Amino acid sequence: MKMLINVPESVVTDALRGMAAAHPELTVDADNRVIVRRDAPVADKVGLVSGGGSGHEPLHGGFVGPGMLSAACPGEVFTSPVPDQMVRAAAAVDSGKGVLFVVKNYTGDVLNFDMAAELAEDEGIQVAKVLVNDDVAVTDSTFTAGRRGTGATLFVEKLAGAAADEGAPLERVEAIARQVNENSRSFGVALSACSTPAKGSPTFDLPPGELELGIGIHGEPGRERRPMMTSREIADVAVDAILDDLRPRNPVLLLVNGMGGTPLLELYGFHAEVQRALTERDVAVARVLVGNYVTSLDMAGASVTLCQIDEELLRLWDAPVRTPALRWGM
Amino acid sequence: MKMLINVPESVVTDALRGMAAAHPELTVDADNRVIVRRDAPVADKVGLVSGGGSGHEPLHGGFVGPGMLSAACPGEVFTSPVPDQMVRAAAAVDSGKGVLFVVKNYTGDVLNFDMAAELAEDEGIQVAKVLVNDDVAVTDSTFTAGRRGTGATLFVEKLAGAAADEGAPLERVEAIARQVNENSRSFGVALSACSTPAKGSPTFDLPPGELELGIGIHGEPGRERRPMMTSREIADVAVDAILDDLRPRNPVLLLVNGMGGTPLLELYGFHAEVQRALTERDVAVARVLVGNYVTSLDMAGASVTLCQIDEELLRLWDAPVRTPALRWGM
After folding, report:
1. Which of A18, A265, A292 is opposite residue B271, by nearest beta carbon?
2. Do B264 and A228 touch (CB under 8 A)?
3. A4, A225, A234, A290: best mutation site toward chain B, by most B Cβ within 10 Å?
4. For residues A68 and A97, is the Cβ–Cβ distance under 8 A?
5. B296-322 pLDDT, tens digit each
6. CATH superfamily of A184-317
């Protein structure tokens, strides 16, 4: 697999140098691997810190900015960042009002954010944590005990970030993050595996003519493999898998997310089928996002995330945000 | 090649249905294949209409909105839209101040926009046209007499769109579009070919271990094929090819554009190398955009576009824009 890189060892550092040059509104420390809002710490505001393995861009670095994350810590590709990065990020964004760690449910991330929380508290920073585990496809996986954290991460970071920007205290920001995660469910499919720079070849073998249902964001196996399906059929499977687990009574936020290698032309077409499937099942969609937000390098495929909302969450969704990847209202 | 579609015949219509559901701020006519700002025609404003083959998303539909295009006409994949679409778009956006057609230099597009301009003028709409032909890689190609239109299209649409929004008359909007095109140059590379839905397999054969320099946006052949190179080497080749043709004296706008299949992680790393190459050659960068904007379905690769600017063009670049793919300041 050919890649637009120098050497596999420098991929993350090179990308951070590129982010630094592209986004003067962020402070990007490529050596220590921390991306911070340039105006941090913002007085009297709870800090929001997330992070995880690289290879899911724009998650998380592309979600740093007013109205969303205060800082992000990228690890090596598909590898958890280390506690030092997280402590450094917490210290950079803490205004004295505390910091919320948004943690996707992968074993390495959970362990390292736990350790970082202890270290940060030793330094006098109040820390709360929220675990994102929205993927209905599998319980336990290659990298996870329990459900994986995938597309809902975007909703958690946006909605809790908006609450933090409004001046909510740590307990409230944490409660919103927890509510968003509990109200969110995801399901993804892969048409091709992804290739990591270190391995240089696909992470698993997906034969021509087959797709993998219930895929995660690291090329780990999903729920089952099937002969190739139409966009319409895939939308039905994804929506049914989600609604089997959470039947929304209220309108939802909908994320139709590309895994990286699927053209936007196909993704919009898939979105049309997801909308049809939701309409047929009497689920009302309040807001939509279609695009590549929580990716898996060059994997072809898509995921669907629903988040059941109330008036308060809708208001937080519509609140202004200004990050490299998500931007409106300012 | 597996695709997230229903049948190849409905790919564009399905995508337009998906766009319609995702973007209530646009009027998307999926049957007639015209995407229009919902508030069109805007009183006393020149209309900006573009279009071209589908498969380059978010170009052009993703650039419709305040501060950029008034309307876009998507053709079949890699196939020019027809004059009927363009006339319909012109009629929808004309406030009486006239319409500018932004035409990428491909034979079919040029012919059809010419015909549409005549038809629109017959209906009493004043029409001007600007041809975008920024690609320095090849003169004449599979689909073009003269140079191809690629990444500069984004600059033309943004800067002329900003001028139109400020109330500039048609002659002025046209002059700005022409100036932007004349001041812009692009060069692209492909690491893999793309696959069209109709063909279902790669449009050309690119062996493992080789890349194609000077690629266009349709999988048509480029300037030469070489053994695989590093990101650093590719940046040097692309920047030199551009600077051989246009040596900017002023600062530039820089677009580092992904062709669709290259992960954002790699694209940011490539951007770091392009910045280095420009610094070494004493080219000052005023503004940067890194992302997938003018794509070629699932092709892996990237292109570099420079646009030499003055204070007026910089001001127009910074002016507010609100479209699905480009959004700031409002």
Report:
1. A18
2. no
3. A4
4. no
5. 999 999 999 999 999 999 999 999 999
6. Dihydroxyacetone kinase; domain 2 (3.30.1180.20)
Strand ranges (E), chain A: 26-29, 34-37, 47-54, 71-77, 99-104, 127-132, 184-190, 210-213, 224-227, 252-258, 285-291, 301-308, 321-322, 327-328
Q: What is the pLDDT of residue A179?
A: 98
User: At residue A3, does pLDDT exceed 90?
Assistant: yes
Give the domain B11-182 fold: Rossmann fold (3.40.50)
pLDDT in tens, B96-136: 999 999 999 999 999 999 999 999 999 999 999 999 999 99
ipTM, two decimals, is 0.97
Average the pLDDT over A274-292 and give the result: 98
Is A262 in contact with B298 (Cβ distance < 8 A)?
yes
Question: What are the residue numbers of the active site of B?
Answer: 56, 218
CA–CA min distance A127, chain B (Å): 29
Chain A residue nearest residue B10, CA to CA: A269
Residues in chain A with CB shorter than 8 Å from the CB of B273 are: 6, 14
User: Does A275 contact B18 at a Cβ distance shorter than 8 Å?
Assistant: yes
Strand order across the beta sheet in which B99-104 lies: B26-29, B34-37, B71-77, B47-54, B99-104, B127-132
Query: Taking the domains of chain B in order of start, what are their residue ranges?
Result: 11-182, 184-317
